[in-house]
Write a structure and sequence with these properties.
By secondary structure, the protein is mainly β. Helix content is about 0%, strand content about 45%.
């Protein structure tokens, strides 16, 4: 029997709700392909709790007054007697922070080569400083102390006693020693003998002309072409040494290539096993210098436990930094990573961790609890102990795959200037990587890794060239950076504005396709749940990932909805929707735009807090839609 006027089945409502964005930014895939708990854009926000979004991020403030055009280094000076100071370098000067005036006052004692990034490291109540051009120096709490170099000994001689001329050649070189290092060696002095070994009756006497202000001399020998450290002889006036074969050459120590009595040179400095390590000598870019330990902390001469080791000198690479990690010192080159340690006998030992990746940015190397983070030329990597391997085996892993496109957008010539800090406060556990965007000439943006949520997001207006976490005498911790484009030191994670100006934050949420991109839908309603909103909040609906089809200030969309309504989880049928402003008195606010009636294959939301700097926390959002006929197509979809 034919039936007429049958009720058509009601089309089901498609609904997608998200209440956690814990994985943060993902630029690796398109906006329709990211996960429900990821973001297509995340600018100047912070993730809190279980993945809620705070608009905007915490603010910034000036820490002291401006001086100079760029801060090239920033350092803590913590003495064992409790003295605490903040220092920095800018231009040609080291400066100390004056908490009474807010100024950075110049420290006397040394004029540094201008505008060079300068690294510092505390050891035995001294702040040692190096910049790759100037000799090593230190700040003692009052002045910068430098060393005066001396000249190498001259006129070396080698005289045989006993035996006779023969086919065995003995050869020696001599360096003059000071409390900081040793000179370059003399030319080789040689003599022949008819026997291969020396004794008390057949021996070689090495002579030289004394060096003014030396405290002693190092003797290297004994085979021609193989000069190894044999003996230190004490006294400025000492001008000879008799080699009777008793002293065994130490084959890990060879004569230095240059004069280091005024201090070694290098771009990077660290303390490991109570010794200073200096790396990145422009003349020897693969050379790692180390000092003696304890009271010989600044003595790099072979006689007092110092020396150097060259790390793969012929690989075409250069040193880019180092950091102590557990029981070793991690050494970075631009395309490889090494592990340095001392053997039980005290000999230097180097093993390669990886030849596949290296560090391009020296100031990106940062210790993050049980791992080391660093920036390569294509992303952020970590070094740590790999699960399933022996505890002393280190592995590298990429951390930044989801934001790799951001690294590709950095200014190529400035990749080496990425600067990082690990900031751990009561509410945050983040690593901030400041960088220069394409077309820029200084660091002005940052990628932020939220360690607790393993999430990324982006910050703007972060002009960090160098970082330090400083705790003053008041016990308050400050996360500070030296500005890459001004003479200011600035503090992050303080207040809710940047130097008195509002922070504009924005996010783009996943574009929801309701499990298929081949079927059209009509977007009906969209809702957002906010906590403690103040100010003007803007919302946009993005159709098919690119087209903004609806945009409005949320204040004009709907009134505040009470807490009980929010706890029901979604708007109830028959609820009245009018107009009303978002106010700070509303702890939890639901806002809904009904009857969007937008046609598309996917729909996403974008929110920002406007130029006035509204503040709120995004707790949840929802978009509902009705499916169109599976055969429905827009005219532009059809193939003729």
């Amino acid at each position: 029997m034919i039936k007429y006027n049958l009720r058509q089945p009601k089309k089901k409502i498609l609904s997608k709700r998200s209440n956690s964005y814990i994985r943060g930014l993902n630029t690796l895939v398109s906006v329709t392909q990211i996960r429900d708990d990821e973001l297509a854009e995340a600018i100047d926000i912070q993730l809190i709790e279980d993945g809620k979004i705070q608009f905007p991020r915490d603010g910034q403030a000036y820490y002291g007054n401006s001086n100079g055009s760029k801060v090239t280094g920033i350092y803590n000076f913590y003495k064992s007697d409790g003295t605490r100071k903040l220092l920095r370098t800018t231009g040609t000067a080291l400066q100390v922070y004056n908490s009474s005036t807010g100024d950075f006052d110049a420290v006397s004692g040394k004029t540094f080569t201008t505008s060079l990034n300068t690294e510092g490291k505390m050891a035995y109540d001294k702040l040692y400083l190096t910049n790759g051009t100037d000799n090593l120096s230190y700040y003692d709490g009052t002045n910068v102390v430098v060393w005066t170099g001396i000249s190498a000994p001259t006129s070396p001689t080698c005289t045989r006693t006993g035996g006779s001329t023969g086919s065995f050649t003995f050869s020696y070189k001599v360096t003059a020693v000071t409390a900081i290092g040793e000179t370059e060696p003399t030319a080789a002095a040689t003599a022949t003998c008819n026997q291969a070994t020396l004794s008390a009756t057949v021996y070689m006497t090495v002579g030289w002309t004394a060096s003014t202000s030396a405290i002693g001399y190092n003797i290297y020998g004994r085979k021609d072409g193989s000069w190894y450290f044999i003996k230190y002889v004490e006294g400025q006036a000492t001008v000879s040494y008799a080699d009777t074969g008793v002293d065994t050459p130490y084959e890990l120590l060879i004569p230095p290539s240059a004069n280091y009595t005024a201090g070694v040179k290098g771009k990077y400095i660290e303390v490991y096993k109570e010794s200073l390590f200096v790396f990145g000598d422009p003349a020897y870019p693969s050379r790692l210098y180390y000092s003696g330990g304890g009271d010989k902390i600044n003595d790099f001469s072979a006689a007092n436990g110092g020396g150097f080791i060259d790390i793969s000198t012929n690989d075409g690479q250069y040193g880019t930094g180092m950091i102590p990690f557990k029981n070793s010192l991690i050494i970075f080159k631009d395309h490889s990573v090494y592990q340095f340690s001392f053997t039980t006998a005290g000999a230097p030992s180097v093993t390669q961790i990886t030849a596949a990746i290296g560090c391009k940015a020296p100031r990106s190397i940062v210790l993050v609890e049980n791992d080391v983070f660093f920036s390569s030329d294509n992303g952020v990597y970590t070094i740590g102990n790999e699960s399933g391997f022996a505890i002393d085996v280190l592995r590298t892993n990429e951390l930044s795959a989801r934001v790799r496109s951001v690294f590709q957008s950095m200014a190529p010539a400035r990749i080496g200037n990425v600067a990082a800090v690990y900031a751990k406060t009561a509410n945050l556990n983040i690593v901030v990587f400041a960088y220069t965007p394409a077309g820029g000439t200084y660091n002005s943006k940052a990628l932020v890794y939220d360690r607790e949520r393993t999430a990324w997001y982006e910050w703007t207006n972060i002009q960090a060239n160098c970082w330090v976490t400083h705790t003053g005498t008041d016990g308050v911790q400050h996360v500070l950076y030296g500005d890459d484009n001004s003479g200011y030191v600035k503090e992050i994670l303080t207040g809710d504005d940047d130097f008195g100006s509002a922070i504009s934050a924005s996010v783009k949420l996943k574009s929801e396709s309701y499990q298929t991109l081949t079927n059209y839908k009509t977007a009906k309603d969209t809702s957002v749940v906010l906590r403690q909103p103040t100010g003007s909040v803007n919302l946009s609906v993005i159709v098919d990932g690119v087209t903004e089809e609806f945009s409005s200030n949320i204040n004009t969309v709907s009134p505040s909805i009470n807490l009980g309504h929010y706890l029901m989880g979604y708007w109830m049928p028959g609820e009245s929707y009018g107009t009303g402003a978002v106010t700070s008195s509303d702890d939890i606010v639901l806002k809904t735009k009904k009857n969007l009636n937008l046609l598309g294959k996917s729909f996403g939301l974008a929110l920002n807090n406007g130029s006035s700097g509204a503040t709120f926390v995004l707790l949840e959002h929802e978009i509902t839609a009705k499916p169109r006929s599976p055969r429905f197509r827009d005219s532009e979809d059809l193939i003729s």
